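Help wanted!
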Amino acid sequence: MALIVSHGHSVTSNPLKLSAPLGASMAFMGMDQTMPLLHGSQGCTAFALVMLVRHFREAIPLQTTAMNEVSTILGGMDQVEQALLNIAKRTKPKIIGLISTALTETRGEDMKGDLKLILERNPELADVKVIPVSAPDFSGSLETGWGKAVTAIIDTLAEPASAKQQDSKTVNILPGVHMTPGDIETLVDLVEEFGLKANVLPDLSGSVDGHVPDHFIPTTYGGATVETARNLGRAKLTIAIGEHMRISAETLQKKTGVPYVLFDRLTGLEASDRLMVCLSNAAGKPVPAKIRRARSQLIDSMLDGHFYFGGRKFAVAGEPDFLWTWGKLISDMGGELVAAVTPVHAAHLSELPCQQVIIGDFQDLEDQILEAGGADLVISNTNARLSCQALGVPHFRAGFPVYDRLGGAHRVHVGYRGTRDLIFQLANVLIDNPDHGHGPVPHSAEHDHAAAPALG
Amino acid sequence: MLNRKKIQDLMTEPGCATNQAKSDKERKKGCAKQLTPGAAAGGCAFDGAKIALQPITDVVHLVHGPIACEGNSWDTRNVGSSGPELYRRGFTTDMTNLDIVNGGEKKLYKAIKQAIAKHKPPAVFVYQTCVTALIGDDVVAVCRAATQRLGVPVIPVEAPGFVGSKNLGNRLAGEALIDYVIGTQEPDDAGPYDINILGEYNVAGEMAIVKVLLDRLGIRLRTAITGDARYNDVAAAHTARANMVVCSQALVTLARKMKERWGIPYFEGSFYGISDTSEALREITRMLIEQGADPELMDRTEALIAEEEAKTWAAMEPYRARLAGKRVLLYTGGVKSWSVIHALQEMGMEVVGSSVRKSTEADKQKALERLGGDEDKLVDAIAPKDMYAMFKEGRADIMLSGGRSQFVALKAKTPWLDINQERHHQYAGYQGMITLVQQMDQALSNPIWEQVRRPAPWDIEE
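Answered by r_m:
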């Protein structure tokens, strides 16, 4: 229904795009006792690190091969080797995620080939699983990098299972980068309600969910283990969430034979229904009474909430599957999607219920809103704040990065209950701001305050 | 690729106190430290250049590279503006596969043109990055062509990440200013009370505090380089009578070159800490008088110092009883450690450690004096693991540091105060020290510490 068009500017103004190596690093945050390592100059790591620290409010392990002028010209293999040895010696991780950047890929480095040689000649690296990921900044965005890293983890670690090892009670879950630790926790609970066991990869809910360990750990603490990844082949079924996870699910199927179901989203009544039917079939059990009750509550929240969505104008800016999830929810509730901006092309976005999807930046978001004669609510990450202030439109923070609100990690977007609570959160902001949608108004401090929804 | 000579010169800066303290042989080696792969922390040269120039508030800062350089970093530093907001916008050419194959010069030119058409800035700063340097994009030529054809100064900043550290990037930014900006405009209001402050970036908008003090003395800040700066003021910075360098390791080369070219004397000082603030005001006054200002200025300066110091100590007095005996770990490079140590000690606090990662030899000596000659307390870098142990074992009650080490303290259930660029409080000048003491008191006396440290009921041994 929507036309996907590129903004066509040479200059990107207030970038919406985040780099693929950052997305790949985030995937490794969901792996236990892991150290992601960006193969680039130290700034590549420093910028990504600061962003992750500010968003998750956690100490973030992330290292660099520290490319310099000489290695940029002569090749970075020595830098990789030294970095791996130093990390293995100092922090003793179980996994090192070795992620390329635009710098090393433009040089045309054969990182995988180099890694093979390095591992052969350094027996001290035998205890560490080094997972190479090609994710140059010049190709794709955050979701791309996350998907590539998950695929690389599966490629390196997952094993086909023998008939004896197969476990008909286990379901694999491959969450997308747009899912929070709270989403993953909720999804695992749902799976368990059906008497099934969930095998999640990567699992941010085990690591960056905001818990306080009782001693110092220099790597990630919590998340999917090497075992988790190895045992993916034993499951009955794989559930992947978000179009950007298709390649990971397919790779897993090819490698282990485990069939997959790809959910475009798990937010909304219809999407949640599909999930429950899927789990019910997998478990061979009817949907539990508790979940049926939750469905009824969601229906009630839709009845109560639809008044505030109908006829209101929404703008969403974010990664493709983020845009898809929020855009569909808005239209499910009767809202109008007047601006939809995403950083990279994704074919499925043509099915979004709006006139066009712009591949662009926050300047495009502003232009789209102005063209629509204003909007009632912007749903986007913290970086949309300048645009929202300029236009005087309330800003509902979601996605990555969100560093000026608390509790983002625990917000739930999936299933009946998650959707129910989202509808309430959005409706409350819309109730607070009844008069928007009439073009830009001057920004005031009070206004900004009112635009801040309480999260958590 | 880049001017090696320029980088070499920056690395052996004669005006740098650290360099002066070195032997001839050591000095020739330069100050470039080789980074350890897999154990490095900190930004790249591009990061440093951007930090040093982005506070110029009314221009377009355009980053020529793939998305990571700007997409992962724009609008994250909390530097303030008293007017224009253009500097907060992130501009980049977002180089993708095809752009890299084709070369990025045309795209860069178009991007400059589009940014100028939309925002009409007085100038555009173009930042070279690793990838565009590697593929040989000639940003200097593109900027020259754009300046000529578009009639707006377009300034190339050649500091791709791989050439070195954040600090080198600061210096390369200084080079861009001296090569292309400073001295290009003649103001009609130059006077004998004009100064510049170099290496001041207006974090949390704290220059307002300093400005009030200068205003009271009738001293005019022509511009900070570059906090809350306007392009035209930076271009006219050569007409000031004195330069104060507050972050000496970043822009001392720029100060030396301004002295050589326009005869502007400079000194290194700081507005952090009470005694430092007073010293800085005295030195500014002394230099201006030397340059022809009325000598009575010194009397007014001394009067202001006496009044402010008395007021500040009085305002801090009520906190003394609450803070006395508390142990502080000071972990920062940006703030001159020794002068803050002084203020903390005056409060009766014990400084159990102070990092001197980015301090000069002279600063280290002063800090050491303050710490009673205890070398163990002067630390270069503390591994997060050791830092965590310090808190767990109760060897420090509070840490003052930047955002990255924040969670080492918090996860160890220890109070923490941000004193780097992401902070929201102003710690400069006399007023800033009062704020710092208040903030420390608030952090330490919060009731959560007792609650979060208490073990769960089921963990208490009978």
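OP: Thanks! One thing I noticed: Chain A has three domains: 3-12+291-450, 20-140, 170-288.
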